[in-house]
Specification:
It contains 16 helices and 3 strands. It is mainly alpha-helical. The chain has one domain. It has a 3-stranded antiparallel sheet with strand order 1-2-3. A hairpin with a 2-residue loop joins β2 and β3. The longest helix is centred in the C-terminal third of the chain and has 34 residues. The mean pLDDT is 86.
Amino acid sequence: MKKIDYSKKARIIRNIDWKLVTIVFLIFAFGILVLSSATHVNITGDFKQMITQLLAFALGIVVVIILLLFDYNSIGKYYKELYIFSLLMLLIVLIPGIGDKQFGAMSWIRIGSYNLQTSEIVKTTFILSYAKIVDMNKEHLNELKTLSKLVLYALPFIGLLLGQPDLGTGIVFMCIIFFMFYVGGLDKKIIRNVIIAAIVLTPVMFFLMAPHQRVRIVNFFNPEAASNYQVLQSMIAIGSGGLTGKGLYNGSQNQENFLPVRDSDFIFAVIGEEFGLIGMLIMIILFILLITRLLTIAKRSKNTYGTFIVAGITGMFAYQIVQNIGMTVGLMPVTGVTLPFVSYGGSSILTSMANIGIVLNVYMRRKRINLY
């Protein structure tokens, strides 16, 4: 192995996208402040969840640094291995004694006292693998044979996720694929036909869903139903926050335990209640800046493989943001999708940071700067 050329360190530091780094740090800083209220540290004095979140973020920074050491193109050479690894990570949760069912989905494995949602890791490995597959077929993307082959490569992942059942993550993967196809120049007529087909097949998909998923869809069209308690409490919290909010640790819905899953799925409602409309707008603006920056980096990649990678990561983050905020304010059905860098979850934070590291890798090597 060649030695690291440390004379390039200064150039590497200069070519890191500090705009993206700053945006991520601002989102996380705001998020950890909100999490302190959502976990009631002011009442219980229990900092366990906050410490876990901070440690995950710190470990994520280490992962980012490690990822910057290697050219992403070198990682792409192992796309077959990454593809197989990704499938195995989704299959392992089906093994009795290893898989752990939580929130109605068999999506977790227990490692000692720690729960790991394997699909969080697979998001990253799938993007690295699938982006390479799309890149190798990009010249014929609009041909039925090629498009069918690409869809077949993705179907096992979608099928396994829907079978867990984890509809939210399944849709995340669909968005990853769509963003890659879109930047690859997929014909708009094909996109239109896919959308029409999806609408036509929606009633069929509804009856194939798990019972708790069907309840969520029904509740979306019947917001005042008693079973829609989560969203009702979320909207009450946001509405009571007004323009400027009630202040940190002063949200009654949050502090008095009316708001469910407030540390993860509905953490945006805590922002609305305690920081008001202004706080929500600040967070939304930060997320818009994040997505805009990711799209800019995708355009500046030195090759299409890098572009497809960043497009997939952008699709992943974009859907999670829109879905989480949308369900919090009652505009979308509840799917259990968390808010990136804000919701509590060690595996989610860690994999989100890994994806940011990959994006920084793509940006840094637009000028072919390598440590090796």
